[in-house]
Amino acid sequence: xxxxxxxxxxxxxxxxxxxxxxxxxxxxxxxxxxxxxxxxxxxxxxxxxxxxxxxxxxxxxxxxxxxxxxxxxxxxxxxxxxxxxxxxxxxxxxxxxxxxxxxxxxxxxxxxxxxxxxxxxxxxxxxxxxxxxxxxxxxxxxxxxxxxxxxxxxxxxxxxxxxxxxxxxxxxxxxxxxxxxxxxxxxxxxxxxxxxxxxxxxxxxxxxxxxxxxxxxxxxxxxxxxxxxxxxxxxxxxxxxxxxxxxxxxxxxxxxxxxxxxxxxxxxxxxxxxxxxxxxxxxxxxxxxxxxxxxxxxxxxxxxxxxxxxxxxxxxxxxxxxxxxxxxxxxxx
Length: 333
Fold this sequence. Notes:
It contains 10 helices and 15 strands.
């Protein structure tokens, strides 16, 4: 039986083991709010915590409701923006809130996140979500839509939009599929996707993309959005990108990557970008992107379950059996 100052949360212990434990309720500090977590989407970047263990409560694709009497947003459903940011440094003033140079801390990584019933959140990380977005889709506004759409928008700073421009997306996980939907919504007509998972590739095709064989060198592309994080895919992108083209590195890989400065690399002009998360100024546009593609995004949320099922469901997710499952918390405590 929980007391009023306790809650349940997941403990990523390492060695692919998760247990559910009782912990103290978070206590919001000055300028923070208590949020009841409604949904937390599972993310592949949490695999490293699953393997090695987590110091804090994990979970960074968080959607919840503010439960802080007297707070301006009390009762408001919000997506939780995970990068802590000061709001006054050079990066923040320029609108690059995900890259604050004064604060380097992420909710779910460097402080407790959303695999618990409640989370304390800085006020400037609360992103109010309109009532027409249902709970299961709320977390998609973060990584699946926010990270993906930002990657495309950032590429367009270097490569102006052209509907006929050939684009390759490598990796059809949640972010890769989000990139496909963002590209199609922005008018791109020739979108290709490569992924060894046939089921995910079929979803990309349903979204309007064309299948491209993994590792194929038969076609070259002006824009390549690399979402797998696989080093061979990054190497191939350098080979396949057209002169004056752009490679966007979205997928993550903690292992060192060596770029071979051979003639393929040296003898053409091209840009290679790394993009991270998204600026808060994108949020309104991302909500509209979700609204206009709601049924397509709904296909990605292929499971919802309670906290006690997380150990089993996370293992299934890690095995590639689900795309974007969500941890769904009940209202009662």
